[in-house]
Amino acid sequence: MGVRTGTAFIAGLRDSREVWLGDERVTDVTTHPAFRGAIESLARLYDMQHEPAYRELLTYPSPTTGEPVGLSFLIPRTREDLARRRQMIKTWADATCGMMGRSADFLNTMVTAWAAKRDYFAQQSPACAERVWRYYEDCREGDLFLTHALLDPQVDRVKNRAEQDDPYLCLRIAEETKQGLIVRGAKMVATAAPFADEILVWPFPPTLTEAEAPYAMVFIIPVAAPGLKIICRESFAHPDQYADHPLSARFDEMDAVAVFADVLVPWERVFLHGDTRLVAQMYVGTRIREMTAHQTNTRLLSKLEFVYGVLCLMAEAIGVQNAPAVQEVLGEAATYVEILRSTLLMGEQGAQVDPSNGVMYPALQPLQVGRTWGPRIYPRLMEIMRRLGAGGLMQLPASSAAFDSPIGRELEKYYRGARISAQDKVALFKLAWDLVGSDFGSRHTLYELYYAGDPSMLMAGFHREFDKAACVARVKEFLAQPSSTAGSAVRTGQRPVPPLE
Ligand SMILES: Cc1cc2nc3c(=O)[nH]c(=O)nc-3n(C[C@H](O)[C@H](O)[C@H](O)COP(=O)(O)OP(=O)(O)OC[C@H]3O[C@@H](n4cnc5c(N)ncnc54)[C@H](O)[C@@H]3O)c2cc1C
Is the CB of 149 under 6 A from ligand 1? Predict the structure, then answer.
């Protein structure tokens, strides 16, 4: 065991999984045009782990076998470990232009966070903690590709799970048997589910009333489990059309709903169940927030760098790179890259060891800034791209093959840029369109808005958790000054402002 090759990853997907694309039951996801491009991109990531140029960056020796295993399974004990994790994640993200939000390192990170805090699961039973640890080891040694399905179907968001008109609309425990839990209901939206090995399931948002105890569960299930149906959205992939659809040909991750028709989840894979308090607090209590934010911010940084690079090249392509108004928006885009980089590094710099398990966790607050600003930054970058590209995003031949057709000479003349050939400008602007305007691109803006949850809830949560005591106290102190001395609190040095560290 140890790190898998791309071929081994692909071979593992040829099983009895029930994947639906419209009215078609997909017999082999690995060859189907809707999935092939993304699967090949993921396979490439697995292959990179074996290449001498990347091996050190992407793997570390398994604590049990000494063989190389994926570095996203490394439980960080030092700041250097966190930096190594970031470099690993960034290397994979750069290889996919930041376009694959659910590459394997994301869920590897979640399982690793659970393993590091397995004591949390011991509150249900010591066996649960052991299961979590064993699963983490299996995953690490088998180099599995996981996804997750957390949300209830979007039916009536004002009612909780137990109040819906059908008790089995949201995923619910139907029966407890000797073998495990029988679960019935659905979960959305599981990105990459058609080509994942297994799916992690738990309820999000993690709010549960006592009446929702049958909905309180944390488990993992193979995608090929009997009774599990994966229902895909429309495909945005354009297989093999790298020139005309450079991103969607490679990176359409696919999103799906997982329908559980009385699926047996063996006890070995049940980590929590029936305890609303434990399940509700698991997200915060196992500190997966810190660990996954470190991963998602790194991935987003890679994507923002890529988008910024495209914007710079677009400006040059049409000769406007020195116009002050254009430089202003390019400068704005650059600040977004720097915001992500800074919050990530601040998260690492402020990392502290949790004395309960000796694990080095990055500081949450700076990372949450990246998480809360991502949904604002990305749509703004797309707005900048539309404004900059303007009609050029439409001045594109239907197919790049037109350059070899009788209209090729007209294209060479009229489709070129300021100092760029027509072929190169068309390639660049087709890339921009795939980011900003294609169905794939629209999905990415939606992804950045929602992948970490409802953006308004995220921002509101940041305010609730923010350490506001000192800020509020200073204002109160100012207001409490006699009117003749108001405004002099800082000068009088009654409460010196602590220096920035
Ligand atoms: C492209 C994409 C990929 C995703 N991938 C994954 C994945 O891999 N795994 C996964 O588990 N999830 C995934 N998600 C789901 C994601 O976590 C959710 O979209 C996000 O948490 C928001 O939940 P929702 O979509 O159910 O929105 P909803 O909760 O239905 O919200 C819709 C709107 O209604 C408002 N609203 C909701 N409830 C209330 C209320 N009670 N009162 C007033 N207003 C309300 C919200 O503010 C929002 O504006 C993905 C989503 C997208 C778009």
Answer: yes
C-alpha of residue 376 to centroid of ligand 1, in Å: 16
Q: Give how far Cα 73 sits from Cα of 9, 57, 104, 132, 283, Å.
A: 17, 13, 10, 13, 18
pTM above 0.90, yes or no: yes
For the chain, the helix, strand and coil percentages under 3-state DSSP, each to the nearest 5: 50, 15, 35
The helix/strand/coil state of 6 is: helix
pLDDT value at residue 501: 56
Neighbours of 268 (CB within 10 A): 16
Residue nearest to atom 39 of ligand 1 (CA): 157
Tokens representing 115 are: 């393993």
CATH number of 6-285: 2.40.110.10
Q: How far, in Å, CA of 85 to CA of 359, rounded?
A: 13
Closest Cα to atom 17 of ligand 1: 453
How many angstroms separate the alpha carbon of residue 427 from the centre of ligand 1? Answer: 34
Q: Using CA positions, which residue lies closest to atom 15 of ligand 1?
A: 189
Q: What percent of the chain lies above the pLDDT cut of 90?
A: 95
Q: Enter the DSSP assignment of 25.
A: E
Rounded CA separation 241/96 (Å): 16
444 C-alpha to center of ligand 1: Å?
Answer: 14
Ligand 1 center–CA 453 separation, angstroms: 6
Is the pLDDT score of 494 beyond 60? no
- Locus of tokens 């839990």: 181
55 CB-contact burial (10 Å; exposed 0-12 / middle 13-18 / buried 19+): middle
Q: What is the mean pLDDT of residues 132-158?
A: 98
Q: Give me the residues paired with residue 357 across strands.
A: none
Q: What is the DSSP letter of 60?
A: E
Q: Is 191 in the pocket of ligand 1 (CB under 6 A)?
A: yes
Local structure of 200: helix, strand or coil = strand
Domain boundary assignment for the chain = 6-285, 288-465
Task: Specify the DSSP element, H or E, that contains 324.
Answer: helix 324-349
Tell me if 220 CB under 6 Å of ligand 1. no
Domain 288-465 sits in CATH at: 1.20.140.10
**Secondary structure class of 400 (helix, strand, coil):** helix
pLDDT at 201: 98
